[in-house]
Amino acid sequence: MKFFIDTGNVDEIREAAEMGILDGVTTNPSLLSKEKGNPFEILKTICEIVDGPVSAEVIATKRDGMLEEAKKLAEIADNIVIKLPTTPDGVKACKELTSQGIKVNMTLVFSPLQALLVAKAGATFVSPFVGRLDDISSDGMGLIGQVAQIYENYGFETEILVASVRHPMHIVQAALMGADICTIPFKVITQMFKHPLTDIGLEKFISDWKKLMGED
Predict the structure, then answer these.
(1) Which secondary-structure segment (H or E) carries 3?
(2) Which stretches of the chain are DSSP H helices?
């Protein structure tokens, strides 16, 4: 499974990259709005840090506007992926961009039928939002299982990018289901390292070594 980080914060991205686990980045207008500076410059910096796909989202709602914004975003760097909403106009723009060889991440996916539509339009990535479904008492991870089955049935090459990840168990479940990617907030990445037995074991090793060396 590939790990993307879901953030617009350059410091978080650098930290994750230094861990050697980072395969890409997803951003959106809300994430970038939390950062200081020009969003295009922030995206350029991110693309210089990360050797992998960096999703940058359009804000236009009509096909022509999406294509115009996509052209500007694609000029930032070769590893920019255009992020489009899963609407009729978004799917039209997806088809146009993918026919030009431009990678597209279709976002705000909440149903298996939406995932089927974007795969047929040639999307590079599909982003089902599992956490937001959980928020309304729906089954976010159940959607991942449905999409994985549909894509396997018909041999779609669109990669399943599990988004709106809220906790480490989302990642475990996605990995067990065979999802291609999880895009993870920095907070959840740090939680993945945590286990009480690791902390207890490390403390014990250090304590025993200090006793051995007469440092107590």
Answers:
(1) strand 2-6
(2) 10-18, 29-33, 39-49, 63-74, 88-99, 112-120, 130-135, 140-154, 168-177, 186-192, 196-212
pLDDT over 70 percentage in the chain? 100
Side chain identity, residue 141: M
Catalytic one of 34, 36, 71, 83: 83
Structure tokens at 39: 């969003």
Interval 113-167: pLDDT, tens: 999 999 999 999 999 999 999 999 999 999 999 999 999 999 999 999 999 999 9
Q: From CA 197, how far away is CA 184, in angstroms rounded?
A: 24
2 assigned to active site: no
The pLDDT of residue 193 is above 90: yes
**Which residues constitute the domain of residue 155?**
2-212
pTM to 2 decimal places: 0.94
The token duo for 23 is 């395969």
What is the tally of structural domains in the chain?
Answer: 1
Q: What is the 3-state secondary structure (H, E, C) of 32-46?
A: HHCCCCCHHHHHHHH
The structure tokens 């978004």 sit at 90
Read off the CATH number of the domain in which 167 is found: 3.20.20.70
